[in-house]
Fold this sequence. Notes:
Elements: E1 18-21, H1 31-45, E2 49-53, H2 62-77, E3 81-85, H3 89-98, E4 103-104
Parallel strand pairs: 1-2, 2-3, 3-4
Helix pairs in contact: 1-2
Amino acid sequence: MSSGPPGGLLMVDATTPAVLMLPGPVARDEVPGLCDDVRARLEATGAGVVVCDIGGLGPPGLTTVDLLARLELAARRAGGRIRLRNPHPALRGLLDLVGLRFESEGQPEEREPAGGVQEAVEPGDPPL
């Protein structure tokens, strides 16, 4: 005897990413422990993303870039990634300069149009 699919909505387990607070300048000897924290949070939540609140790090420098690259590498090795929260405005330019890209909260993903933007075609425009 067989039965059809159950009625109603399917249950989806939504996971919330863990947040790792980086309140101030990070010393080089603290980096391995932070990488361990990222891996542990990925395993504990199963979310696949750890949000790194970096608002307290201050103006970015190469030590910040090195820290973020190492955290991302640790996350990738654990099957996840990091997302930045509260980055300093100059950090994006510095990351682009060294060739690193990170997802930031509140930013549209790459190649995704911003919400509410529609492309309009004017009458008389030639077809492409």
